[in-house]
Amino acid sequence: MDIEAIDMARIGIGAAILVYVANCTLNQRVWIRKTFSWGAKDEYPKIYLMNVIGGTLIGLFLISSPFLL
After folding, report:
1. How far apart are CA 55 and CA 1, in angstroms?
2. What is the pTM of this model?
3. Where are the domains of the chain?
4. What are the CA-CA distances from residue 32 to residues 7, 18, 23, 53, 55 (Å)?
5. Three-state secondary structure along the chain?
6. Angle between helix 45-68 and helix 5-27 axes, rounded to 10 deg
7. Is 27 exposed, middle or buried (0-12, 13-18, 19+ CB in 10 A)?
8. Count of other CB atoms within 10 angstroms of residue 46
């Protein structure tokens, strides 16, 4: 199986997204663009869940998609 440069980029971006999700989960904080700062999980519960769930799904998809076809 030959992995091309675009596939390596997708894997790298997916890994970066999963690192961000891990950081949010460990620190119980999320980056808020509106205030351009970190916000606590208790202050922004919907945004926190959206980032953790969505980031996990997107990151896993980006990492696994080169190997699916």
Report:
1. 27
2. 0.88
3. 11-68
4. 30, 18, 14, 16, 15
5. CCCCHHHHHHHHHHHHHHHHHHHHHHHCEEEECCCCEEEECCCCHHHHHHHHHHHHHHHHHHHHHHHHC
6. 150
7. exposed
8. 7
**Cα separation of 54 and 30, whole Å?**
13
pLDDT tens per residue across span 25-34? 999 999 999 8
Rounded distance between C-alpha atoms, residue 24 and residue 45, angstroms? 12
pLDDT tens digit string along 3-61?
A: 788 999 999 999 999 999 999 999 999 999 989 999 999 999 999 999 999 999 999 99
Residue 34 token pair: 């509106």
